[in-house]
Amino acid sequence: MNQDKMSKTENEKPASADAPVDDDGVDRTLIRWFLGLTPLERLRMVERYIASVEKVRNGRQRS
Fold first, then answer.
1. Which of 25, 51, 58, 59 is exposed most, by the fewest CB atoms within 10 A?
2. Considering Cα of 36, then 39, then 43, then 44, what sign does the dihedral take?
């Protein structure tokens, strides 16, 4: 095994459960934060997000 392959293998360690980002690039801190909200808080957050997306869409249509 050459040096390049060996260093790649050493760097490819699985992410621990405490890592902020997993191997797929998923930000676990956001997931933990969202799951820490109550169902009503989650719903309100999603509604605010939808409203902001609609606002951006409407703004682009007028231009």
1. 25
2. negative
**Model confidence, pTM:** 0.53
Question: What is the C-alpha radius of gyration for the chain, rounded to an integer number of angstroms?
Answer: 20
Is residue 22 a contact partner of residue 15, using CB atoms and an 8 Å limit?
yes
Q: Rounded CA gap, 20 and 33, in Å?
A: 12
In a domain, 10, yes or no: no
In this prediction, what percent of the chain has a pLDDT beyond 90? 41
Residue ranges of the alpha helices (H) in 1-63?
A: 3-11, 28-35, 39-62
Let me know if residue 26 belongs to a domain: no
Domain ranges, residue 60: 38-63
Q: What are phi and psi of 27, to 5 degrees?
A: -80, 105
